[in-house]
């Protein structure tokens, strides 16, 4: 991890949506720092707030409270401030078909960013370069084609080209391959990795796919109901997870070896009804198995919000030998 | 280098437009009712444009036609007979086409323009400004068209220009609602999001993404609004609010009824204008339906895949 | 005992303009009572067409040839009355639980009740039976009063499973039942299917594009590519040591977490799954295959033996009678 100033810093971020039964706290107090050149994976299930967090970092969503800083400077939510930000932070989308205007040619799709931002340089050359770097060669043959004439993987490459043509420092990828065929994913992920290597771009990947995080991420942050519950280097977090939610998630992913599946009961609660204390406690295997009571922390689990990381009272007691043994049993 | 020129941005935009239009035309050709409607329209427009060649305009002025027999039937006078003042009905019919079509198209353009702008703004912005625009739209929708139009026409006076204005400003609400509904779905599309992520301003989003995707609907709606407008014009003219100097088909009907053509059984004065209105309305409706089917974005993608 | 036997099944869609689309080009399958078969493949491989063909749910105008023998009786030539009786009581299907798979304006309990009544399986008390079915799939009985949009994705999927097993079929076809669900909910639904399978001796054909979900639930796996089966064999063998290069590539697309071989090394195939109307010559996989040799574009491939109870449609397989 770089000791230098982080590229993106998120401080005590809260994003709330008004709802019928009260506000939905999509992001409920997140602190995060993303270093320059690193690839961070934001993982979690639907409703955990990862997409909202990513969009807030992009500036597409204004926070309810807290701030996002880019290279130390807080984001300015004015028209000019946002325009500036768009030159440094770009996004690729989950559904490449929907993200391209069916009436625009591929050339126009890539040129759009250039035109909006008023980039210098010959437009045609910039577009050709971007398409080429995204693996679409020869680029000229793609200029007059439409999105429906190319495959899903190629569409995603066009979107990547459209984002990279602006030379951003940060690339936010929202489920970049989940809508693509399995055999095509590797190519797109490899493209992203090569962009990191060549352009030194920092990547924030939002995904529910832990295998993808293993494939491309330096660090992984696990989110549950609007909070980051665990964060760490991919090699460590994905092989020796500490938070009970992370452990459960990894245990049910078919690609993980040697872990007894812990299938949690029920589903993630609604962001309008976040449980008290540790928000995971109603589904937590540690509470359910009685281990929490045995460790004497059950009351904390039910009543005290763990504002540390990993966000688990049991893990905090990890110095206790008893609990160490418990963790290794599973 | 030729490749550079072939791929210049402008060329690409033109290629795109050309392909879209030729694609639509190819499909339109297969639509029989649409082709029939188009045929009728071409015939009527050709007739209207060629009016000076087809009929002597002096036949429209009472002063020059007093020597003709009044209420002469076609068998006696030839063509379509004469009216109360001896003016040849055929001449009036040909020249009347111009007025009917002119008012029809101009008022439609006015109505669709207002309706589209209101619809796009209301749909795109939503919230309070969108809501306010919709309240205005609903107000106009709720007021019965005829009394409002009559009142406005009576105040402004009978002329072609005023007719266009009156019909234009009373016919836009339904277009506005239609456009707004489409814009509401369009603005949630991912490509709008992507454009915003690239730094697009609201203006850019509305003109580059929303407008092109809503314009097929606008076009189809225009073709379907023309018949409504033509009928409105005919109604207003028939009720006596038409321009007496520039008689449309509706005005012809008004004159005919006023002069007692029904009692006198001067069918040659009543039927041609009535038939003319009906045919033009039918033609536009047929074309409009065909266009709607071809340009509906929901049907579009399925056809391509 | 063989429950289902599919012989040389071909499914060809009639296209409005242009050539017909051959979605399934000669598939043989065998399923014993109580057995689970996983069918994996990507978009355009024909797996969903195959599933629909088994229940004769394809649009009119589609050509289907071959036979589908359910307990010796050919589903494809059944009279409509017999087909209706067989559908749902012998052979049921579970689709992806998207909102439009259930009638959005009817309560879920009523939809299950409808199936029961149609096949006269309610016994005396349909409501009670509906309640029992909901509990069977892990939902409280009172949820029968809910409308589909009031349920979460996982809950809707459970309703669909309850609907499918309502008439106690012997064979369940699950077409992408866990796609679009969260990984934890996926695990719950897979566990449910496993439980039902054990409890009722259900035979299941599990169709998915995610090869890894088949790891635990199926005893045998068949991989489809371009309308044909590319490889077929016991679960553990196909996963551990795939015979067909496509299967290897598909398995590698889902990295094993903890395995350093996958770290920073995403693996995928170049190109895209082929368009059924424009298939490559010879082996349809050869343009994307890293092990293609010069005879591949010229050789029509078939399923050749590749070990015990295994077959693969590749010239590299030891049982293939082509010179290498």
Please specify the SSE layout and strand pairing:
The complex is a heterotrimer of chains A (330), B (305) and C (324).
Chain A: E1 8-17, E2 24-34, E3 39-43, H1 50-58, E4 65-70, E5 73-74, H2 79-88, E6 89-92, H3 106-117, H4 123-133, H5 152-164, E7 170-174, H6 182-199, E8 202-207, H7 210-216, E9 219-224, E10 227-233, H8 234-237, H9 244-252, H10 285-288, H11 291-295, H12 298-303, H13 313-316, H14 321-329
Parallel strand pairs in A: 3-8, 3-9, 6-7, 7-8
Antiparallel strand pairs in A: 1-2, 1-4, 4-5, 9-10
Helix pairs in contact in A: 3-4, 3-5, 4-5
Chain B: H1 2-6, H2 9-29, H3 32-49, H4 51-54, H5 62-65, H6 74-77, H7 89-125, H8 127-142, H9 145-156, H10 160-171, H11 173-186, H12 190-197, H13 202-241, H14 249-258, H15 267-295, H16 297-304
Chain C: E1 2-13, E2 21-32, E3 36-40, H1 47-54, E4 63-70, E5 73-74, H2 80-86, E6 91-94, H3 108-118, H4 126-136, H5 153-165, E7 171-175, H6 183-200, E8 203-208, H7 214-217, E9 220-225, E10 228-234, H8 235-240, H9 245-252, E11 304-305, E12 311-312
Parallel strand pairs in C: 3-8, 3-9, 6-7, 7-8
Antiparallel strand pairs in C: 1-2, 1-4, 4-5, 9-10, 10-12, 11-12
Helix pairs in contact in C: 3-4, 5-6
Q: Explain this structure to me?
A:
Chain A is an alpha/beta fold and 330 residues long. Chain A is 37% helix and 19% strand. In chain A, strands 6-7-8-3-9-10 form a six-stranded mixed β-sheet, sandwiched between helices. A four-stranded antiparallel β-sheet of chain A has the order 2-1-4-5, covered by helices on one side. Chain A starts with 7 loop residues before the first strand and ends with a helix. The relative contact order of chain A is 0.13. The mean pLDDT of chain A is 89. In chain B, helix 9 (145-156) runs antiparallel to helix 10 (160-171), helix 12 crosses helix 13 (202-241) and helix 13 packs antiparallel against helix 15. By secondary structure, chain B is mostly helical. With 324 residues, chain C is α/β, with parallel strands linked by helices. Chain C is 27% helix and 22% strand. Chain C has nine helices and twelve strands. Chain C has an eight-stranded mixed β-sheet, sandwiched between helices. In chain C, strand 9 and strand 10 (228-234) form a beta hairpin. The two termini of chain C are 38 Å apart. Chains in contact: A-B, A-C. Chains A and C meet through helix 5, helix 6, helix 7 and helix 9 of A and helix 6 and helix 9 of C.
């Amino acid at each position: 991890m770089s000791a230098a100033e982080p590229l993106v810093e998120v401080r005590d971020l809260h994003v709330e949506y008004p709802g019928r039964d009260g506000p939905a706290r999509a992001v409920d107090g997140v602190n995060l720092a993303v270093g320059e050149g690193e690839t961070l994976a934001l993982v979690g299930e639907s409703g955990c707030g990862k997409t909202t967090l990513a969009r807030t970092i992009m500036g597409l969503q204004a926070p309810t409270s807290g701030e996002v800083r880019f290279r130390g400077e807080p984001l300015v939510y004015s028209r000019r401030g946002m325009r500036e930000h768009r030159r440094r932070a770009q996004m690729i989308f989950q559904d490449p078909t929907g993200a391209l205007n069916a009436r625009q040619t591929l050339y126009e799709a890539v040129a759009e960013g250039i035109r909006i931002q008023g980039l210098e340089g010959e437009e045609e050359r910039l577009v050709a370069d971007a398409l080429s770097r995204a693996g679409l060669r020869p680029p000229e043959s793609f200029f007059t084609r439409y999105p429906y004439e190319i495959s899903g993987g190629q569409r995603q490459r066009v979107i990547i080209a459209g984002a990279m043509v602006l030379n951003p420092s940060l690339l936010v990828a929202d489920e970049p391959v989940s809508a693509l065929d399995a055999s095509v994913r590797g190519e797109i992920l490899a493209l992203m990795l090569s962009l990191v290597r060549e352009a030194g771009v920092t990547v924030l990947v939002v995904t529910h796919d832990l295998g993808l995080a293993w494939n491309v991420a330096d660090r992984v942050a696990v989110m549950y109901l609007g909070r980051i519950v665990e964060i760490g280097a991919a090699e460590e977090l994905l092989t020796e997870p500490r938070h009970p939610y992370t452990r459960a998630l990894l245990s049910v992913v078919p690609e993980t070896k040697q872990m007894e599946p812990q299938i949690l009961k029920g589903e993630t609660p609604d962001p309008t009804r976040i449980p008290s204390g540790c928000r995971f406690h109603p589904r937590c295997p540690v509470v359910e198995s009685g281990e929490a009571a045995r460790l004497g922390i059950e009351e904390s689990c039910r009543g005290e919000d763990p504002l540390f990381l990993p966000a688990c009272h049991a893990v905090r007691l990890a110095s206790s030998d008893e609990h160490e043994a418990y963790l290794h049993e599973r | 280098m030729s490749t550079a020129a072939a791929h210049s941005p402008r060329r690409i935009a033109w290629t795109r437009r050309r392909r879209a239009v030729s694609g639509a035309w190819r499909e339109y050709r297969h639509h029989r009712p649409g082709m029939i409607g188009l045929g009728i329209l071409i015939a009527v427009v050709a007739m209207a444009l060629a009016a000076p060649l087809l009929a002597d305009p002096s036949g429209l002025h009472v002063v020059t036609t007093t020597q003709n027999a009044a209420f002469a039937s076609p068998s006696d006078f030839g063509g379509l007979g004469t009216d109360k003042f001896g003016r040849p009905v055929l001449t009036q019919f040909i020249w009347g086409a111009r007025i009917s079509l002119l008012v029809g198209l101009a008022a439609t353009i006015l109505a669709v323009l207002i309706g589209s702008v209101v619809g796009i703004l209301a749909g795109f912005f939503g919230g309070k400004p969108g809501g306010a625009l919709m309240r205005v739209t609903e107000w106009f929708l709720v007021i019965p068209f005829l009394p409002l139009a009559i009142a406005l026409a009576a105040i402004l006076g009978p002329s072609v220009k005023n007719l266009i204005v009156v019909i234009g400003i009373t016919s836009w609400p339904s277009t506005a609602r239609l456009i707004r509904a489409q814009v509401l779905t369009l603005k949630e599309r991912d490509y709008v999001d992507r454009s915003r992520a690239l730094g697009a301003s609201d203006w850019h989003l509305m003109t580059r993404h929303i407008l092109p995707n809503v314009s097929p609907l606008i076009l189809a709606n225009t073709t379907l609004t023309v018949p409504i407008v033509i009928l409105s014009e005919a109604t207003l003219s028939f009720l006596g609010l038409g321009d007496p100097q520039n008689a449309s088909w509706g005005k012809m009907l008004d004159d005919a009824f006023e002069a007692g053509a029904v009692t006198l059984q001067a069918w040659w004065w009543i039927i041609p204008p009535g038939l003319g209105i009906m045919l033009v309305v039918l033609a536009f409706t047929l074309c409009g339906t065909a266009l709607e089917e071809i340009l509906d974005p929901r049907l579009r993608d399925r056809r391509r895949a | 005992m063989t429950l289902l036997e599919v012989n040389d099944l071909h499914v060809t869609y009639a296209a409005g303009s242009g050539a017909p689309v051959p979605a399934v080009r000669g598939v043989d399958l065998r399923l014993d009572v109580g057995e689970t078969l996983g069918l994996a493949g990507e978009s355009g491989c024909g797996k969903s067409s195959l599933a629909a063909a088994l229940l004769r749910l394809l649009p009119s105008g589609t050509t289907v040839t071959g036979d589908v023998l359910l307990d010796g009786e050919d589903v494809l030539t059944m009279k409509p009355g017999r087909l209706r009786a067989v559908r749902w009581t012998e052979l049921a299907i579970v689709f992806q639980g998207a909102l439009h798979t259930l009638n959005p304006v009817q309560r879920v309990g009523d939809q299950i009740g409808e199936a029961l009544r149609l096949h006269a399986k309610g016994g005396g008390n349909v409501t009670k039976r509906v309640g029992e079915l909901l509990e069977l799939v892990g939902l409280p009985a009172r949820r029968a009063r809910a409308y589909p949009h009031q349920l979460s994705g996982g809950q809707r999927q459970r309703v669909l499973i309850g609907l499918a097993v309502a008439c106690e079929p012997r064979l369940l076809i699950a077409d992408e039942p866990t796609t679009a669900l969260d990984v934890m909910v996926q695990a719950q639904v897979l566990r449910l299917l496993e439980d039902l399978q054990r409890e009722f001796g259900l035979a299941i054909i599990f169709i998915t594009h995610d090869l890894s979900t088949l790891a635990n639930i199926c005893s045998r796996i068949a991989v489809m590519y371009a309308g044909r089966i590319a490889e077929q064999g016991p679960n553990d063998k196909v996963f551990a040591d795939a015979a067909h290069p496509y299967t290897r590539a598909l398995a590698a697309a889902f990295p094993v977490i903890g395995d350093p071989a996958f770290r920073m090394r995403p693996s995928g195939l170049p190109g895209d799954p082929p368009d059924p109307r424009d298939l490559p010559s010879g082996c349809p996989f050869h343009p994307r295959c890293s092990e293609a040799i010069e005879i591949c574009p010229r050789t029509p491939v078939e399923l050749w033996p590749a070990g015990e109870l295994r077959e693969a449609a590749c010239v590299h397989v030891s049982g293939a009678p082509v010179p290498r």
